[in-house]
Amino acid sequence: KHIILLTALCSTFFFASAQKEWKGWASAGLTLSFTRKLDLRLNHLRSYSLNNPVENGFNQTSASVNYNLTRKLSLLGGAMLTSFPFSLSESTKRVYARASYKIRLAQLLNWSNGVQAEYHSSAETRFRYRFIYITRLSNRKEIPFLRLTLTAAYWLYYNQGGNQIRYFDKTGLVVTRHSP
Questions:
Q1: Quick check: 20 pLDDT over 70?
Q2: What is the dihedral of CA 33, 34, 35, 36, to 10 degrees?
Q3: Is the CB of residue 45 less than 8 Å from the CB of residue 60?
Q4: Contact by Cβ (8 Å): 57, 20
């Protein structure tokens, strides 16, 4: 388990140190449980530059419904609005659905895997559909004296539709264009 934690910390360090400009993300969320199996989640995420915290990169607001079919299998569906305050571009909207499966590893860790499908509004020109594979590894119980749960997560994206992508040769000339 120490090797997993060390690997996660090292990969986070190398990723963070490779960024040109440091960004911060602050989020707030509310979960309303109607039953043991049904939740409503409301979230807001704000991006900002660490050099200038007043400068707002984007705002993302979402509402979703989560239903646990079993202790291991859950379904989630929702909608999200992303706005860029300092940009002339239109706010993007998306709806999404996710199915997740969770297993317990050695009574210490939870490992969940899921697939998410998204449909984006026409304001998002890079893609229309997006499919995401999500894997998440976390300790099963929080660390008592810190009240923290350590988590490592990976999201693998596949974008489809939208503007064409330009492909270049070794000299830098555009060879072809294809939609993703």
A1: no
A2: -10
A3: yes
A4: no
Three-class SS string for the chain?
CHHHHHHHHHHHHHHHHCCCCCEEEEEEEEEEECCCCEEEEEEEEEEEECCCCCCEEEEEEEEEEEEECCCCEEEEEEEEEEECCCCCCCCEEEEEEEEEEEEEECCCEEEEEEEEEEEECCCCCCCCEEEEEEEEEEECCCECCCCECCEEEEEEEEEECCCCEEEECCCCCEEEEECC
List the structure tokens of 97: 């659905």
Q: What are phi and psi of 175, to 5 degrees?
A: -95, -45
Q: Which residues of 122-145 are buried (b: 16+ CB within 10 A; e: fewer)?
A: eebeebbebebebebbbbeeeeee
Whether the predicted pLDDT of 101 surpasses 90: yes
pLDDT at 28 over 60: yes
Q: What is the pLDDT of residue 9?
A: 47
110-122: pLDDT as tens digits: 999 999 999 999 8
Residue at token pair 């900002």: 48
Q: Is the pTM of this model over 0.85?
A: no
Q: Do the Cβ atoms of 103 and 110 come closer than 8 Å?
A: yes
